[in-house]
Amino acid sequence: SWRPHVGIPANTIASCAEDGTVVIWREGMEGERWSQLARWSLDAAAWQVSWSVTGSMLAVSTSDNQVRLYKELLDSKWVCTTSLTELGAEDGSGSGGDAEA
Predict the structure, then answer these.
(1) Which of 80-83's residues contact partners 24+ apart within 8 Å by CB, and which partners?
(2) How does pLDDT run across 44-67, given as a tens digit for each residue?
(3) Following CA atoms 2, 61, 40, 71 in sequence, which dihedral angle do they give, to the nearest 10 degrees?
């Protein structure tokens, strides 16, 4: 999923996989090599990723019927802020899989 360009002069995408891996990729300038910014593993298959309109939040839907919301901190680390289920929101401090830079 492509991150919206909101004052960021770089291309950023998020990818996910059936093994639960989520990766944030960045291309500094057009034509440059893509680099991995962050990577984390979830305890369920990651099926889809989607950015918020401003690009500040990333939603990850998983095979355990959850949507986990991630936010990038000022130090470029990603943290799970919320896990959503059909029952509502839970604190993101559980098994959301914080990112490794």
Answers:
(1) 81/57
(2) 999 999 999 988 899 999 999 999
(3) 60
pLDDT at 94 over 50: no
Separation of alpha carbons 24 and 35, rounded Å: 9
CA end-to-end span of the chain: 19
Using DSSP, state whether 87 is helix, strand or coil: coil
Cβ atoms < 10 Å from Cβ of 14? 23
pTM for the model: 0.80
| Dihedral over Cα of 97, 92, 46, 58: its sign | negative
Query: Residue holding tokens 């369920």?
Result: 44
